[in-house]
Specification:
This protein has about 150 residues and is α+β, with helices and mostly antiparallel strands. The protein has a single domain, classed as START domain (Alpha-D-Glucose-1,6-Bisphosphate, Chain A, domain 4, 2-Layer Sandwich). It is built from 2 helices and 7 strands, in the order E-H-E-E-E-E-E-E-H. Strands 1-7-6-5-4-3-2 form a 7-stranded antiparallel β-sheet. The radius of gyration is 15 Å and the shape is globular. The relative contact order is 0.25.
Length: about 150
């Protein structure tokens, strides 16, 4: 199964504990990932959270497709990580490494995508990279409220 790795490191002007708490809450991903419009079926277990994330795509300006993603989310002392399983055959593993730096948090955002075939992986990687880059600014903008 072809795969690709995407990395982005950025600064958030909030302490690591606040960033970790925010990234550990499923509802925080609404808008943090520009395609995510809803989370549902949140189930909290001892050391992880499972939920369904609704990713909305628009085609031709009026056709709408809601992609339901199964997400598993874990928080550790220095990271938030998880897996995403898309019904379209795309699998994503992610990790937000969190390090105290310059009065805030350095976030090392790493995404590993896998797909059944190359063209699907290419499309998914382009979408994921756009979300990854947008997330840096969105999370930094949310910092005062964390």
């Amino acid at each position: 199964m072809p795969e690709t790795l995407l990395r982005n490191t950025f600064h958030v002007p909030a302490p690591p504990d606040a960033v970790r708490a925010h990234l550990s809450e499923p509802a925080s991903y609404i808008g943090l990932s520009p395609l995510v419009v809803e989370v549902r079926d949140v189930r909290r277990e001892a050391d992880l959270v499972r939920y369904v994330s609704v990713e909305r795509f628009r085609f031709l300006g009026f056709l709408r497709y809601d992609n339901l993603l199964r997400v598993t989310l874990r928080s550790t002392e220095d990271a938030v990580e998880g897996e995403v399983d898309s019904p379209g055959g795309v699998k994503l593993a992610y990790r937000f490494g969190l390090t105290a730096r310059d009065g805030g948090t350095e976030v090392a955002d790493e995404l590993r995508l896998r797909a059944a075939f190359g063209p699907l992986l290419g499309y998914a990687a382009r979408q994921a990279r756009a979300v990854q880059l947008a997330r840096a600014g969105i999370l930094a903008d949310r910092a005062p409220a964390l």
